[in-house]
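wait is this the right file?? whatever heres the structure
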């Protein structure tokens, strides 16, 4: 048994272009929490994830010891819980009003996530030139394209004709959130929405808080893809404070990433073996017998269940043994190539159903 949860290895499964994964990596970097990465292809299949017995297809996933966490909302909550602020791992909330920061970070994340699908439609044609990517992302939203004929991609949301049509609306949706930042949280010309004290090389500097991370990630992503934003609609002229803040954030994170040093990259089998041979990060939780869904549907610990996200990526359902179900999460045990792991998902935005125990779908 490891002496402390903080001695357990953390592995982030991601690809560099993922803005969701960036949030987690920036968080780990600013809080000086060491981690390794297992780099994934942009499209399915992802055999490294399948090696953990996991069919979930979204990126990122993160393990702490032998527990694997799905969805960045749960990942960041777990890191907050398992890595409370300390001298080694600074808090990312301002010391002046941490609870207000906590609330603001959550609200901003919610608002930013609400436009993610629109933002994805701002990707320029050059990024969407690979039909395999367009087909893969259609499956992400439940549209399975089997044929390879010339019109095959017509129903894919990211097919050229469809994104061309969706772009004006997507720009308007994005502009609304950016205008909100320009006109409210950044209006007084401040450096960060909420700043925190971060130490490096014996010197304390003011840096961005989690509030900034939750507000910036989507716009940082698009700003760094040439052609994604139309400068005459969403650009520096209309939103000088937002763009200066995005660029300040980018420069700050580049510096911190350099300070953190090279992140170790693990191969899929290497990562899976490391995870399976680690201790669990958390004690085994239970199925809450008073939970309204447990009462209504009779879920029991130890039974086989399916688990999937309800918004997108729902064709890829996990299959495992129900370990826990409580107010905030589902936990199932999956069987991978080298042994079993506990897979945690948020309760909100995910669903389970009873299953006969067949193997996971769509690996
Ligand atoms: N709610 C999820 C969303 C994650 C998400 O949408 N990730 C994107 C990459 S940025 C994704 O999985 N795209 C499809 C894929 O890579 O298979 C989370 O917070 O983790």
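ok assuming it is, sequence goes like this
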């Amino acid at each position: 048994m490891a002496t402390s949860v903080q001695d357990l290895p953390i592995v982030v499964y991601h690809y560099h272009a993922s803005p969701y994964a960036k949030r987690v990596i920036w968080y780990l970097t600013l809080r000086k929490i060491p981690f390794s990465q297992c780099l994934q292809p942009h499209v399915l299949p992802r055999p490294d994830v399948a090696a953990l017995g996991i069919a979930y297809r979204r990126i990122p996933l993160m393990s702490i010891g032998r527990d694997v966490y799905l969805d960045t909302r749960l990942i960041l909550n777990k890191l907050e819980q398992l890595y409370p602020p300390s001298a080694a791992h600074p808090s990312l909330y301002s010391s002046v009003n941490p609870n207000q920061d906590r609330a603001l970070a959550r609200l901003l994340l919610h608002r930013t996530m609400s436009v993610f699908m629109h933002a994805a439609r701002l990707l320029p044609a050059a990024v969407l030139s690979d039909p395999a990517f367009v087909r893969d992302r259609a499956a992400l939203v439940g549209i399975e394209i089997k044929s390879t004929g010339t019109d095959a991609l017509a129903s894919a949301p990211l097919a050229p004709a469809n994104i061309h049509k969706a772009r004006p609306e997507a720009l308007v949706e994005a502009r609304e959130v950016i205008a909100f930042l320009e006109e409210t949280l950044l209006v007084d010309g401040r450096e960060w929405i909420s700043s925190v004290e971060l130490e490096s090389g014996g010197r304390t500097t003011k840096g961005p808080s989690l509030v900034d991370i939750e507000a910036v990630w989507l716009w940082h992503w698009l700003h760094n893809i040439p052609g994604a934003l139309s400068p005459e609609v969403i650009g520096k002229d209309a939103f000088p404070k937002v763009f200066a803040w995005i660029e300040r954030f980018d420069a700050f994170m580049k510096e911190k990433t350099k300070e953190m040093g090279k992140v170790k990259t693990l191969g899929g089998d290497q990562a899976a073996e490391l995870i399976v041979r680690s201790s669990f990060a958390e004690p085994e939780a239970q199925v809450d017998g008073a939970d309204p869904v447990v009462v209504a549907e009779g879920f029991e610990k130890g039974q086989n269940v399916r688990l999937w996200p309800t918004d997108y990526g729902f064709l890829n359902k996990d299959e495992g043994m129900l370990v826990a179900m409580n107010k905030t999460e589902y936990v199932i045990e999956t069987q991978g190539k080298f042994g079993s792991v506990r897979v945690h998902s948020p309760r909100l935005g995910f669903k389970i159903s009873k299953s006969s125990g067949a193997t996971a779908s769509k690996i």
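Residues 18-20, 57-59, 71-73, 140 surround glutathione (CB under 6 Å). so i think its the right one actually
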